[in-house]
């Protein structure tokens, strides 16, 4: 087993969130309207889970080569807020990759991938 090369992500910006909303068609106002987000009980706007998961997938593909990623699963375990900086770490065991994106001590994304061949 070896370590996935640690990578810093961010800071995540409101612009990142709005761009992803346009690209992904997720116009839920909880992600871009501060007043709406607070009225819904949130501390403010936050990134879509798929934005965070997509960033992790892109970093994986950049490292392993996009043609080498056979499967990818992701779980969102915490909110990602504007201004957050994440640290992506993980383990590689042959073709199995396990990743975690952390904001400080909090894991906000967990991901699992299978590669076509060891990277």
Tags for this model:
about 120 residues; single chain; 5 strands; Thiol Ester Dehydrase, Chain A; alpha+beta; elongated; about 30% helix; 3 helices; five-stranded antiparallel β-sheet
Describe this structure in words.
There is one protein chain. Strands 1-3-4-5-2 form a five-stranded antiparallel β-sheet, covered by helices on one side. The protein has one domain (2-115): Roll (Thiol Ester Dehydrase, Chain A), CATH 3.10.129. It is elongated. It is α+β, with helices and mostly antiparallel strands and 119 residues long. It has helices spanning 14-24, 34-39, 49-64, and strands at residues 2-9, 69-76, 86-93, 96-103, 106-115. Strand 3 and strand 4 form a beta hairpin. The longest helix has 16 residues, at 49-64. It is built from three helices and five strands; from the N terminus they run βαααββββ.
Mean pLDDT: 97
Strand content bin: 35-45%
Binned, the helix content reads 25-40%
Q: Under the CATH scheme, which architecture would be assigned? A: Roll
**What fold name goes in the CATH topology slot?**
Thiol Ester Dehydrase, Chain A
The CATH superfamily name is Hotdog Thioesterase
Overall tally of domains: 1
Order of helices and strands: EHHHEEEE
User: Structural class, from secondary structure content?
Assistant: alpha+beta
User: Taking Cα atoms only, what radius of gyration do you get, to the nearest Å?
Assistant: 15 Å
Q: Give the CA-CA distance, first to last residue.
A: 12 Å
Biggest sheet details: 5 strands, antiparallel
CATH class: Alpha Beta
Number of strands: 5
Q: Unreliable runs, pLDDT <50, ≥5 residues?
A: none
**Strand adjacency order, main sheet:** 1-3-4-5-2
Q: What's the shape?
A: elongated
User: How many helices does DSSP assign?
Assistant: 3
């Amino acid at each position: 087993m070896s370590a996935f090369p640690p990578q810093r992500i961010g800071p995540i910006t409101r612009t990142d969130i709005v761009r992803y909303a346009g690209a992904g068609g997720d116009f839920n106002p909880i992600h871009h309207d501060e007043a709406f987000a607070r009225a819904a009980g949130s501390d403010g706007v936050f990134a879509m889970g798929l934005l965070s998961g997509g960033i992790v997938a892109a970093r994986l593909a950049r490292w392993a080569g996009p043609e080498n990623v056979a499967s990818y699963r992701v779980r969102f375990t915490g909110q990602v807020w504007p201004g957050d900086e994440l640290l992506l770490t993980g383990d590689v065991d042959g073709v199995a990759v396990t990743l975690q994106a952390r904001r400080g001590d909090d894991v906000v994304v967990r991901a699992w991938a299978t590669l076509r061949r060891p990277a």
